[in-house]
């Protein structure tokens, strides 16, 4: 800790020397409404407290300057900040067109202000349309932008605006680890992202012990007790105004029926707010004895009100963010905050056709006390932000850089490029062999390479890279354009991260292996990884019997038994990437032991390993060979010998194959009763030997409603490689995987 503190001090010292020892960072903070000021004020106080490092200019615009919304610029003056500029930017009308015109008006007025102030950096908060105008102006005028609360997810148009500001901003202060990861995923420079927490939490976490009864009395009446009133704050949803007004009407009806003292704050200036105010007045809220309707409450007092309320209801971000710090119950209405991280104190009512659902939510939540949540901060955001500001080097290039994932270098557009065949590198990791192929968009295997699969992780990965590099070089000679690398491997795979979680016993040293990163770094190509059974299903979906089929199942019958399930045209992976482990469906409680450690699995009866085991038993008892068969002394007994013996009339071999086919058929009946596919595809070297037995079991054991299912044998010569290729070809061309 001491080391990093000293390192930070040294960096700040170097930055001061670069910027000029006497140069103070000129910071412009622009605030548009009461909500963003509650987040910006703690930062402004921090900047003001360090005049040796900073010069602060405050610009006020938006609804701060409108009487109907409380003239909230006054609280900035009460906090003893000098307002450098007031810009009237709101075009009244409270509809979509007025929002657009307000952005345009702000864009017209801001350049003159920024030319006069010449700030080194502008601090912009959140996701409001006013903030978009601020960020656009600053970016076009080559002013560095620090964006507060980027990377978060919510509903309505706010999401799009927030992410647009992120793209314009040079530096980012985020509140949660998820938000930080979202920013990184959006290709923002990790070195310019600060995970600080929410600045308002610096006030929140020290606020609850202050005198609050006088504040409650002032806003709700002297007869109101703590935990016996409601705070309601609901805004219009700009992407569905009509529905949000209907929900607001239902909310007021529910609050009237609930019959508790309620503080109702007027909505913000978004499109639809005028209609919401009309609803309030139509229902007589401003004159109802149980309601107090107000345009604005100072943030310090608002904190006390929500901290000691019996419940907060509405769709304000305050409800899902700040209120969690006190454990106050919250009812979040509608879609405006969809995607926000929330504590256990939040109960969501996504949709409501009547007031009953909201009323029931009030009955469930009112008066409860939940554990305090610190998802959005620990009370130390401002010191981190000030430290971050001091570390900004003004001599660094202004042009921001995006950290895109590695991709193949662009090549000039010429006739050879146009005529190239779009292709994929497909890798199949089997228990014995390692294969790499160039596969065209039509499913043609243009070139294939095969090597024995090494026993150790290091040798295996080195061989994969060597074979892929060789294949990629050869692709140029055969006029193929490689779009990416698809890998099919045994075991349980996390396809989102490209990691083999657990391997089968057939592939050693192959658990918790990140395949995507080293191969992508080496080849500069995107890489996809999935389980071999899933890849077989994808191969059928793109090139085989499953093409155009909405619901089907593929089973691989080979050394082991695997498979994949396609439901509504999409592959099912499951919550822990363990779906479609079809070989481990148990069909007998006291059957033979399986490699997985269980007993009676399909794989313990019908896999190549299981048949080889039974063949060895017959051979050891001199019951395998019949007339027409011969084996050399050193020859290893295999499943093929069992199949040959059965064809030549060996009754015991026939019985083993019949039992294996029955076990496979029973497993498929279970699948039919579970996911009800319209097609079952048998793939692998044993498929032809099992297909008739499977159909017989279905006719005898399945419910009549699923007996009509088609059971076919795959016509694909190499489903593992074709499936690995389809991982790439489907995603890069149609983005459906």
Automatic annotation (TrEMBL):
<keyword id="KW-0963">Cytoplasm</keyword>
<feature type="binding site">
    <location>
        <position position="492"/>
    </location>
    <ligand>
        <name>an N-acyl-D-mannosamine</name>
    </ligand>
</feature>
<dbReference type="InterPro" id="IPR000600">
    <property type="entry name" value="ROK"/>
</dbReference>
<dbReference type="InterPro" id="IPR003331">
    <property type="entry name" value="UDP_GlcNAc_Epimerase_2_dom"/>
</dbReference>
<keyword id="KW-0378">Hydrolase</keyword>
<feature type="binding site">
    <location>
        <position position="601"/>
    </location>
    <ligand>
        <name>Zn(2+)</name>
    </ligand>
</feature>
<comment type="pathway">
    <text>Amino-sugar metabolism; N-acetylneuraminate biosynthesis.</text>
</comment>
<feature type="binding site">
    <location>
        <position position="581"/>
    </location>
    <ligand>
        <name>an N-acyl-D-mannosamine</name>
    </ligand>
</feature>
<dbReference type="Pfam" id="PF00480">
    <property type="entry name" value="ROK"/>
</dbReference>
<keyword id="KW-0862">Zinc</keyword>
<feature type="binding site">
    <location>
        <position position="584"/>
    </location>
    <ligand>
        <name>Zn(2+)</name>
    </ligand>
</feature>
<keyword id="KW-0597">Phosphoprotein</keyword>
<keyword id="KW-0808">Transferase</keyword>
<keyword id="KW-0418">Kinase</keyword>
<keyword id="KW-0479">Metal-binding</keyword>
<dbReference type="GO" id="GO:0046872">
    <property type="term" value="F:metal ion binding"/>
</dbReference>
<feature type="active site">
    <location>
        <position position="532"/>
    </location>
</feature>
<dbReference type="Pfam" id="PF02350">
    <property type="entry name" value="Epimerase_2"/>
</dbReference>
<dbReference type="GO" id="GO:0004553">
    <property type="term" value="F:hydrolase activity, hydrolyzing O-glycosyl compounds"/>
</dbReference>
<feature type="binding site">
    <location>
        <position position="532"/>
    </location>
    <ligand>
        <name>an N-acyl-D-mannosamine</name>
    </ligand>
</feature>
<feature type="domain" description="UDP-N-acetylglucosamine 2-epimerase">
    <location>
        <begin position="53"/>
        <end position="390"/>
    </location>
</feature>
<protein>
    <recommendedName>
        <fullName>Bifunctional UDP-N-acetylglucosamine 2-epimerase/N-acetylmannosamine kinase</fullName>
        <ecNumber>2.7.1.60</ecNumber>
        <ecNumber>3.2.1.183</ecNumber>
    </recommendedName>
</protein>
<feature type="binding site">
    <location>
        <position position="594"/>
    </location>
    <ligand>
        <name>Zn(2+)</name>
    </ligand>
</feature>
<keyword id="KW-0511">Multifunctional enzyme</keyword>
<dbReference type="GO" id="GO:0009384">
    <property type="term" value="F:N-acylmannosamine kinase activity"/>
</dbReference>
<dbReference type="GO" id="GO:0006047">
    <property type="term" value="P:UDP-N-acetylglucosamine metabolic process"/>
</dbReference>
<dbReference type="GO" id="GO:0005829">
    <property type="term" value="C:cytosol"/>
</dbReference>
<dbReference type="InterPro" id="IPR043129">
    <property type="entry name" value="ATPase_NBD"/>
</dbReference>
<feature type="binding site">
    <location>
        <position position="603"/>
    </location>
    <ligand>
        <name>an N-acyl-D-mannosamine</name>
    </ligand>
</feature>
<dbReference type="GO" id="GO:0005524">
    <property type="term" value="F:ATP binding"/>
</dbReference>
<comment type="similarity">
    <text>In the C-terminal section; belongs to the ROK (NagC/XylR) family.</text>
</comment>
<comment type="similarity">
    <text>In the N-terminal section; belongs to the UDP-N-acetylglucosamine 2-epimerase family.</text>
</comment>
<keyword id="KW-0021">Allosteric enzyme</keyword>
<feature type="binding site">
    <location>
        <position position="504"/>
    </location>
    <ligand>
        <name>an N-acyl-D-mannosamine</name>
    </ligand>
</feature>
<dbReference type="GO" id="GO:0008761">
    <property type="term" value="F:UDP-N-acetylglucosamine 2-epimerase activity"/>
</dbReference>
<keyword id="KW-0547">Nucleotide-binding</keyword>
<feature type="binding site">
    <location>
        <position position="596"/>
    </location>
    <ligand>
        <name>Zn(2+)</name>
    </ligand>
</feature>
<dbReference type="InterPro" id="IPR020004">
    <property type="entry name" value="UDP-GlcNAc_Epase"/>
</dbReference>
<keyword id="KW-0067">ATP-binding</keyword>
<comment type="subunit">
    <text>Homodimer. Homotetramer. Homohexamer. The hexameric form exhibits both enzyme activities, whereas the dimeric form only catalyzes the phosphorylation of N-acyl-D-mannosamine.</text>
</comment>
<feature type="binding site">
    <location>
        <position position="584"/>
    </location>
    <ligand>
        <name>an N-acyl-D-mannosamine</name>
    </ligand>
</feature>
